[in-house]
Amino acid sequence: MEGICCSSSSSSKAQFKATISLLTHHCFSTSKFCPVSFVPVFWRSKRDCKRRTTAASLRTTAFMVEEAIEKPTSREAMPKIDKSGRFCSPRAARELALLICYAACLEGSDPIRLFEKRMNIRRESGYEFDKASLLEYNHMSFGGPPVKVETVEEADELVRCDEKQSAIEAEVLSAPPKLVYSKLLLRFTRKLLVAIVDRWNNHVLVIDKIAPPNWKNEPAGRILELCILHLAMSEIAVLGTRHPIVINEAVDLAKRFCDGAAPRIINGCLRTFVKDFTMAGGGEALEAKQQIAVEV
């Protein structure tokens, strides 16, 4: 009997984009659709002077989070939920920052304001968030090659599992952030978004040099992948998180939310970025700033 080919690829990418659509429709006032260009000109005026004074704070918090990641325990052993019943893993903060950045690119809007608007959104009357979904939510759910099953029943079971996971992801990703993420993670998410905006224009030029031609020729179809690059590059350059951690996290995000060769390409792009960044003297500067953060 011939096996039935059933895709084992996670529905995370489709669910991620569906959640963005849900959020922008219900939670945010959507401006003109702008799929490719997000140029944060607003950030250059009165906020320029504030960026310098907050730089130390950005890196100190990032360093604290990074140190928590590097404790001598396995990633699997790290608690996912804190005592308040909210996400406390830095992976969750990076996912949220990616979601907001992606939505901002689709809208052509300010990701910081988008984040704050979502933070302050009023809950609908009678809304109740199922906190049990946080325990079932899987940050390490990656796609994979198609799976062969022998019976229709097995195929149906795989579909049911996939639909259940999609429902959990929809519940979590569309819920008010204050119900899902700890205060520390929400602060870290905001710092990631500030870093992205701060370096966006510079990193657009960098990505133009290191990204493959097909990504640059069709940027509207690679918004999610480009957002992952911006997120990772900004965390390295602005927050000073050690690049092996950031690259691993970016590759995992690509495995989770992107298709095809995206994880491999993102890994290569970020390694090229780190090499060029270090050769330009950025590595030594970040190491010195990390030492200052420890002393503080």
CATH level-4 homologous superfamily: NusB-like
Number of helices: 13
Structural class designation: mainly alpha
Oligomeric state of shown chains:
single chain
GO molecular function: RNA binding
Pfam family, one: NusB
InterPro entries: NusB-like_sf (IPR035926), NusB_fam (IPR011605), NusB_RsmB_TIM44 (IPR006027)
Keywords: RNA-binding, Transcription, Transcription antitermination, Transcription regulation
Key structural traits:
296 residues, mainly alpha, N-utilizing Substance Protein B Homolog, Chain A, 2 strands, globular, disordered C terminus, NusB/RsmB/TIM44 domain-containing protein, RNA binding, NusB-like_sf
Write a structural description.
One of its GO terms (molecular function) is RNA binding. Keywords: RNA-binding, Transcription, Transcription antitermination, Transcription regulation. The chain has 296 residues and is mainly alpha-helical. The protein has helices spanning 12-26, 48-69, 90-107, 111-119, 132-136, 152-173, 177-180, 183-210, 213-217, 223-239, 243-257, 262-279, 282-295, and strands at residues 4-6, 147-149. It has a single domain (81-293), classed as NusB-like (N-utilizing Substance Protein B Homolog, Chain A, Orthogonal Bundle), CATH 1.10.940. The chain contains 13 helices and two strands; from the N terminus they run E-H-H-H-H-H-E-H-H-H-H-H-H-H-H. The chain is globular, with a radius of gyration of 20 Å. 34% of the residues are buried.
